[in-house]
Write a structure and sequence with these properties.
By secondary structure, the chain is an alpha+beta fold. 24% of the residues lie in helices and 50% in strands. It has three helices and nine strands, in the order H-H-E-E-E-E-E-H-E-E-E-E. The termini are far apart.
């Protein structure tokens, strides 16, 4: 049986699909109040329509996502991705999920993660001046 598996893995298309399924990148981007935010591929946008506000000198918005990804994995994702994209961590409150805050160019992003009834909820809130 191990000979069959070895020959199966030698096929170029098999290797391609294994790499593809293991997640090259593992994320996509959503625009919240004009700011591109990385979202882990295990989280999908909620049916609820996001909120956006625009006032002279201030703009902001909020979007919600849900999925089966564990909250600690979502937190790990943002702890790596946001600094890699130039965002500076400012607040971190962690307990079975948590809240992370980042700043960049007069903008703030608040990432809130929690779990209820087997579903992980992710909320991205963006606010800042200069809009």
């Amino acid at each position: 049986m191990s000979l069959r598996i070895a020959s199966f893995l030698k096929r170029p298309t098999t290797l391609f699909f294994i790499v593809l399924l293991n997640g090259c990148g593992g994320s996509y981007e959503e625009t919240v109040a004009g700011i591109k935010i990385p979202i882990p591929s295990g989280m999908k946008k909620s049916q609820d329509k996001g909120v956006e506000i625009s006032l002279p000198g201030f703009g902001g918005g909020q979007a919600s996502f849900q999925g089966t990804m564990e909250p600690d994995k979502v937190i790990e994702f943002y702890k790596k991705e946001m600094p890699d994209r130039g965002w500076t961590p400012s607040i971190s409150l962690l307990s079975r999920g948590g809240m992370l805050a980042y700043t960049k160019d007069n903008q703030s992003v608040l990432v809130t993660v929690g779990k209820s009834d087997g579903t992980t909820a992710l909320s991205i809130t963006v606010g800042g001046t200069g809009k």
